[in-house]
Amino acid sequence: MELCSTNITLTNLVSVDERLVYTPHPENPEKTVLTQEAIITVKGVSLSSYLESLMANTISSNARKGWDAIEWIIQNSESALS
């Protein structure tokens, strides 16, 4: 499964194109591999490379939170069905 998103607010200042790809684990069919990438472009700001780096770090740290949330939902939905 592939998910793609693009911000629609503040596009005149910054654009973030994100892509998430979920694939079966090559060795364990019970697991899933997530590949996440984001392209960040800051426009019209003198410190654009600094801001791009700052946003990349924030996205990276939030990626783990998102994965933890998905795991929590799966675990709780499995226990609700049991």
Automatic annotation (TrEMBL):
State the GO CC annotations: mitochondrial intermembrane space
Which domain of life does the UniProt lineage start with?
Eukaryota
Signal sequence segment: none
**What residue stretches are annotated with the PRELI/MSF1 domain?**
1-82
Q: What is this protein called?
A: PRELI domain containing 3A
**From which source organism is this entry?**
Chelonoidis abingdonii
